[in-house]
């Protein structure tokens, strides 16, 4: 099919002489990096010059061209938007959609403006067929007719039976023997157009007959544009026309098969049906797969990737190196994807397991549970900046929204969101989790994915604006320790540390399949990330970082081993956080702007603030159990953190008129000044202070103690461990 479309489009797109340099050995690229040696089991493997200038011939310019160099470049540049319709191989690519006549003519007008500095004879010589086609569509009377029939034209263009008929007929043309190839009086283009006309005439639906006539009339004008082509279309439905050769072939015994590849014979219906290679995953596409009758097409995000020679893999255009960042308990490290280069990113931490990165601002975010703080720092090594100094105990995953510019996190039963600088924070979902573990975002779609490893474990997909929370995986799941999103393929991957599997699914939970199911390869995954065609993960049993093919789990490789348990893992590269135009940029929100599904964006306010009737501004509404920070950083904070030795307010309103401190900064000092408590000892329904002041001002009383619980990697029965400190941090 792809070859067919190329053969069809070439004569219609350009009528110019193209000079190409002869190949002298193809292009060069770096070979796969060597893998480092490992002492792990043998079934897990561990981990250069252009041709001489004299070989390139000097080509003489075509002096017969009506264009000079500048005009030719300008004309070819301007023609690009006019042929966008041919980019989607799943649609009819004979011409732009007639139902979109307004947009089509707008493009043509922009093209004419773009080429104002190009002489008409030069402009017309570059793409005469394309100009003729657009001039025909935009002729005033013809355009008016198409506008009146817009709805019906759209119906005909989207008719699946017509599309399948057209592809089947052209596939048959491709496979015909030489004696049935069109004669010189009927060129290949004419034959293809006739095939589409036949499909329109054979259309079974009785509706939109006028739209079919418009389509056939336009195709006839295209076919007759060149008198030398001598293309006379048969548009009379009453004339006898040879039927297309059936796909089914049966022998005398009644055994049937399909004549063309890409189909399978269904005995119950006695018919050949299309094989959906995309659904069966036999396509092996790196990113997107478009199913077509009898075949399929792999596509790549053209902003960052190009389709490789195998027509399946997507090659990254920006070949700058990727880096892996991983949490290591008391430190955060980065490592090259070949495992050869290590660098300490942040040291001196207490209990750090959760990290994420922001490519746009070149920053690393991490949660230090021991110090009760979320911090961020420039990856180049500048001093860290506190984002959150309270309510960090019990925090699980964190995730940066690189488009809406927010930070999401899981804590106890809630899903939280806050501005990247930490000034405003709210619970976007309350009481939806029991034992949360991991979170991943797809900001371009306004969707987040969260995992819970309670007795009724699940993976949920939720709108990032708090409007819709739904569980998408609830069966055959126990300890979903990690979840990651393949941004370009729009699939999720997760690792189950109890079942010893890595699986994938569509974003709605359908199409689930196992990538790796081997206790010897993935005995206890904690962190998971995706980049290009690879899965990267951290494993507690191996105390290492591993990699494998994301499609089939093959070529499992140990990149590095660590002294302590490795935790959260992220890949740093600008390709993996593609910039998108955000509605938030023009929404004018006072505090928070939350992305939703279908391009929505909603203004929201931090805790202690109410959204006003304009849907943008926020007004303070601090409760009796909170104090209001004034100045340039207005927010409400719990009185629990009043006089704790750490200024939560930028104007230090929470640390004014305080009694003498006998406790360390960050510790809770009982109001009778007789005892010091760690943050995790507050609001746990147990009065640790003699005056019970540690149970005052609590936002709720039903939540259990916020311990940071992790799975134990050493238990043969895989029982849950009870405390973060038991994990050798």
TrEMBL record:
It comes from the Eukaryota. Residues 716-729 have a biased composition (Basic and acidic residues). Its main location: membrane. Residues 709-729 are annotated as: Disordered. It is found in: Membrane. One of its GO terms (molecular function) is calcium ion binding. Residues 277-315, 583-619 form the EGF-like domain. One of its GO terms (cellular component) is membrane. It is a single-pass membrane protein. Keywords: Disulfide bond, EGF-like domain, Endocytosis, Glycoprotein, Membrane, Receptor, Repeat, Signal, Transmembrane, Transmembrane helix. Residues 274-315 form the EGF-like calcium-binding domain. The keyword Nucleotide-binding does not apply. This is EGF-like domain-containing protein. Disulfide bonds join 643-658, 683-698. InterPro entries: 6-blade_b-propeller_TolB-like (IPR011042), Cueball_EGF_LRP_Nidogen (IPR050778), EGF (IPR000742), EGF-like_Ca-bd_dom (IPR001881), EGF_Ca-bd_CS (IPR018097), LDL_receptor-like_sf (IPR036055), LDLR_class-A_CS (IPR023415), LDLR_classB_rpt (IPR000033). One of its GO terms (biological process) is endocytosis. Residues 1-20 form the signal peptide. Gene3D superfamilies: Laminin, Low-density Lipoprotein Receptor, TolB, C-terminal domain. LDL-receptor class B repeats lie at residues 362-404, 490-534.
């Amino acid at each position: 099919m792809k070859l067919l479309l190329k053969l069809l489009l070439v004569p219609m797109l350009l009528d110019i002489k193209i000079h190409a340099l002869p190949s002298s050995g193809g292009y060069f690229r770096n070979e796969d990096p060597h893998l480092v040696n490992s002492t792990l089991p043998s079934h897990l493997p561990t981990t250069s010059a252009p041709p001489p200038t004299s070989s390139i011939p000097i080509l003489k310019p075509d002096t017969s061209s009506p264009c000079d160099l500048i005009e030719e470049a300008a004309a070819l540049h301007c023609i690009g938007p006019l042929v966008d319709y041919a980019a989607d191989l799943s649609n009819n690519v004979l011409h732009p959609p007639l139902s979109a006549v307004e947009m089509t003519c707008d493009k043509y007008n922009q093209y004419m403006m773009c080429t104002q500095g190009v002489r008409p004879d030069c402009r017309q010589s570059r793409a005469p067929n394309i100009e003729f086609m657009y001039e025909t569509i935009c002729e005033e009377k013809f355009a008016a007719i198409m506008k009146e029939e817009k709805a019906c034209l759209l119906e005909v263009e989207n008719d699946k039976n017509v599309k399948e008929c057209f592809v089947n007929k052209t596939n048959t043309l491709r496979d015909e023997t030489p004696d049935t190839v069109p004669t010189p009086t009927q060129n290949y283009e004419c034959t293809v157009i006739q095939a589409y006309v036949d499909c329109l005439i054979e259309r079974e639906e009785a509706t939109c007959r006028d739209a079919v006539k418009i389509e056939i009339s336009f195709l006839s004008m295209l076919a007759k544009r060149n008198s030398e082509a001598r293309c006379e279309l048969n548009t009379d439905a009453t004339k006898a026309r040879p039927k297309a050769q059936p796909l089914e072939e049966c022998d005398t015994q009644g055994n049937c098969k399909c004549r063309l590849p890409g189909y399978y014979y269904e005995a119950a219906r006695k018919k050949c049906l299309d094989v959906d290679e995309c659904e069966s995953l036999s396509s092996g596409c790196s990113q997107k797969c478009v199913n077509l009758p009898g075949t399929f097409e792999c596509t790549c995000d053209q902003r960052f990737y190009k389709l490789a020679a195998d027509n399946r893999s997507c090659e990254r255009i920006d070949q700058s190196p990727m880096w892996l960042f991983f949490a290591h308990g008391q430190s955060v490290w980065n490592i090259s994807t070949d495992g050869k280069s290590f660098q300490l990113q942040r040291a001196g931490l207490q209990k750090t397991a959760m990290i994420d990165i922001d490519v746009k601002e070149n920053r690393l975010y991490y949660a230090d549970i021991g110090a009760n703080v979320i911090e961020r720092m420039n990856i180049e090594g500048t001093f860290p900046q506190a984002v959150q100094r309270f309510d960090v105990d019990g925090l699980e995953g964190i995730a940066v929204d690189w488009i809406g510019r927010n930070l999401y996190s899981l804590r106890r039963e809630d899903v939280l969101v806050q501005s990247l600088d930490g000034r405003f924070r709210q619970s976007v979902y309350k009481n939806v989790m029991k034992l949360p573990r991991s979170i991943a975002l797809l900001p371009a779609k306004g969707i987040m994915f969260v995992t819970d490893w309670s007795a009724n474990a699940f993976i949920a997909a939720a709108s990032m604006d708090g409007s819709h929370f739904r569980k998408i995986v609830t069966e055959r799941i126990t300890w979903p320790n990690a979840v990651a999103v393949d941004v370009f393929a729009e699939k999720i991957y997760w690792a189950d540390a109890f079942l010893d599997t890595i699986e994938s699914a569509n974003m709605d939970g359908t199409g689930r399949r196992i990538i790796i199911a081997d206790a010897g390869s993935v005995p206890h995954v904690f962190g998971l990330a995706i980049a290009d065609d690879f899965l990267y993960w951290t494993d507690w049993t191996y105390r290492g970082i591993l990699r494998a093919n994301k499609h089939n789990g093959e070529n499992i490789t140990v990149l590095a081993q660590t002294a302590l348990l490795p935790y959260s893992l992220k890949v740093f590269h600008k390709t993996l956080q593609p910039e998108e135009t955000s509605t938030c940029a023009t929404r004018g929100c006072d505090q928070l702007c939350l992305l939703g599904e279908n391009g929505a964006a909603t203004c929201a306010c931090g805790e202690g603030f109410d959204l006003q009737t304009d849907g943008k501004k926020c007004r303070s509404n601090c409760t009796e159990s909170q104090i209001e920070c004034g100045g340039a950083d207005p927010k409400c904070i719990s009185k629990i953190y009043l006089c704790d030795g750490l200024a939560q307010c930028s104007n230090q309103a929470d640390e004014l008129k305080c009694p003498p401190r006998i406790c360390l900064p960050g510790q809770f000092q009982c109001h009778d000044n007789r005892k010091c408590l760690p943050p995790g000892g507050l609001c746990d329904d147990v009065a640790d202070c003699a005056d019970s002041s540690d149970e005052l001002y609590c936002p709720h009383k039903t939540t259990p103690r916020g311990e940071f619980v992790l799975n134990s990697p050493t238990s043969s029965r895989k029982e849950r461990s009870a405390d973060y400190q038991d994990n050798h941090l």
